[in-house]
Amino acid sequence: MQPQRNSSAPLNSAIIDLTTTNSSDGSILAQYLNLRDKLVQREQSLETELEAIHSALKDFARCKVAPGPMLPPPATMLSAPKRRTGLSAAVSAVLAGGPRTKEQILEALRAQGFPLPENGLIPLNAIMYTPRYRHEGKLFSLAVKTA
Residues of 57-78 as b/e, b for ≥16 C-beta within 10 angstroms? Predict the structure, then answer.
């Protein structure tokens, strides 16, 4: 802990009295000294608060708490629910009936209850331009596998 600083208020008051009567810049010096006094007071209050914090932490460190039983993780963290069918397999099933546009594929997936975000074209576009599918203009179909 640092020693407490002596308050220099009487000295500052004497300097302010001298400067305000003898100089036009005395008000600036007075403002500076006033600000300095406030900063010294703030520093002392922060040091007092810091001492209280250190004391509380020391008291807390002395306390021994027995560890409790381990809690299982929340159900949401155990495992995500598995989809019955992946998007690619669902699109392949839709295209088994013949070529369709992306919008028609999206409608068919939603009609089957496949979970898609509000803008379902984003995940659909991600798989439609893979070698598994062929596209001619706006129509998509299953790519022919050659053995």
Answer: eeeeeeeeeeeeeeeeeeeeee
Type of residue at 22: N
pLDDT in tens, 30-83: 889 999 999 999 999 999 999 999 888 888 777 766 677 777 666 655 555 555
Q: How far apart are CA 101 and CA 107, in angstroms?
A: 10
Cα 105 from Cα 91, distance rounded (Å): 7
Residues 134 and 143: their CA atoms lie apart, in Å, by 5
| Cβ atoms of residues 100 and 108 within 8 Å | yes
Distance, CA of 60 to CA of 57 (rounded, Å): 5
Q: Interior CA angle at 38 toward 33 and 41, to 5°?
A: 125
